[in-house]
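Appendix C: a fully annotated inverse folding record. The material below is reproduced so that readers can follow the format used throughout the book. The structure is listed first as tokens, followed by the designed sequence.
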């Protein structure tokens, strides 16, 4: 009896790919055994050729999304924005950093200031390169919420500036 089922499955079951969505077609193409189910594979390829305009439309949408993302990255990575954020961090981190008495700083303060500089600097670098950053319970994208994205960058810049001042005080004073 099992041989009969494999025969029926192999030769008699025809799949109607016209009812599949494009994503389902792509998944079927990845998972189909071309040799074992040659007729279904041929039907699948015929359906792909019928949907050529839909596939081309999806490709053009993807290309336009990539182009839009590149424009966003140019916006987040301008020299003026980077310089402005670092100057903001230094200017507003300066009073807090200099409120610390330099004689009370030791080696652990150097370590923690370097750690905080690398963490906040890494987050800033990531946000400049990707156009999104971490914020609260979600990711902040510059296209979806530019104000909160900028606020997050300002916080990272302030942490970087503050820890930089503490590092300079701990090492040089």
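Designed amino acids, in order:
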């Amino acid at each position: 009896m099992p041989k009969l089922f494999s025969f029926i499955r192999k030769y008699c079951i025809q799949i109607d790919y016209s009812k599949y969505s494009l994503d389902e077609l792509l998944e079927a193409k990845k998972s189909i055994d071309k040799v074992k189910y040659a007729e279904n594979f041929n039907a699948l390829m015929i359906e792909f050729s019928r949907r050529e305009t839909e596939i081309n439309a999806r490709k053009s949408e993807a290309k336009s999304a990539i182009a839009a993302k590149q424009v966003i990255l140019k916006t987040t990575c301008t020299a003026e924005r980077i310089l402005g954020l670092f100057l903001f961090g230094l200017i507003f981190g300066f009073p807090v950093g200099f409120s610390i008495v330099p004689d009370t700083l030791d080696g652990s303060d150097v370590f923690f200031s370097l750690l905080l500089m690398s963490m906040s600097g890494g987050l800033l670098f990531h946000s400049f390169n990707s156009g999104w950053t971490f914020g609260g319970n979600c990711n902040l994208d510059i296209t979806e919420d530019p104000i909160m994205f900028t606020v997050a960058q300002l916080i990272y810049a302030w942490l970087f500036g503050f820890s930089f001042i503490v590092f300079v005080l701990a090492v040089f004073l």
